[in-house]
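hi! just following up on the protien thing from before. the input was this:
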Amino acid sequence: MNIPKTAWLAVIIATTALTAATVPAQEAPKGWEVAALPAINYDADEGLGYGAIVELYSRGAGGLEPYRFTVQPTVFLTTGGRRDFTLFFDAPRLLPGGWRADAYLGSERQLASPYYGLGNGTAVDPGREEDEANPYYYRFGRTRRQVSGNLQHGLGGLPLRALIGAGVVHNTIDAVPNDSGTTFLAAELASEPAEPLPGGYSNFVRGGLVWDTRDREVGPTRGSWSELLVQRVDEALGRVRPGRREARRALDAVGVRLARVRALAELCVAAVRSAAGVVLARQRRRAWNGHRASRGRNPRLLGIRPGLLPRLLLRIALLR
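and the predicted 3d structure came back as:
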């Protein structure tokens, strides 16, 4: 017996509707949830890496959203000596009065952080990369320990939160990791014995705003999350006074940013002048029909010097 396709479609729709009616709505998860992943990688400088990333969520008896609090420990080790131990705590529904708290505790030891000198004009010797007597020549070791915390509170009925926080950060620099011959950083420090050793405390306070329109925090499907923060590192908070090296590095970074801003500003001005010039050219072409073609192709009529826009684009490409 041949059954029409429309009949099969009606049966499928009816079965689907019956199934949907008989399956109860999924309830919000309650209690504890645990998620874990292995952390495995390989790096030529640090060797084989192994560890674990764990996330624990407490939603309480009522299934609080996004969660009552979460604890996220991470352990990562390598055969080359790297040691990372971090712990993140976030409590959006634990404190009364709509307050949200988060904290971070971490100790990260890295033995192969790259360093090729200060500024873009530093000469690099490719042969040093293959120097077996000094395998870490363009590397240095760094141990970073940090404790920080933040408090957040909603502002009115907007998806906007105010944030205040503080942290204590200490960096220890090892110019010759694993006692592996010598390094470029060790040579620079030896040439400037009066220069203080890098590292020390860089404690901070910060404040700002958090804009969060995500439909849910764990696995969002729409919305956005943005922060606007101002952070202050000051000697009164335990900051080590920077030497000439750190000051020069900061000035180089600021100079590069200012150059990028200037280039972008010139590009915007050129684009505006070009757009205005096009409009003016069209008006003049309508008024001066006899000179329409020649004026329409004159680059100076557009309010922009010939070749300015390509040069600006090239400058931005080089700065990037």
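Residues 244-287 form the longest helix (44 residues).
The two ends are 71 Å apart (CA to CA).
cheers
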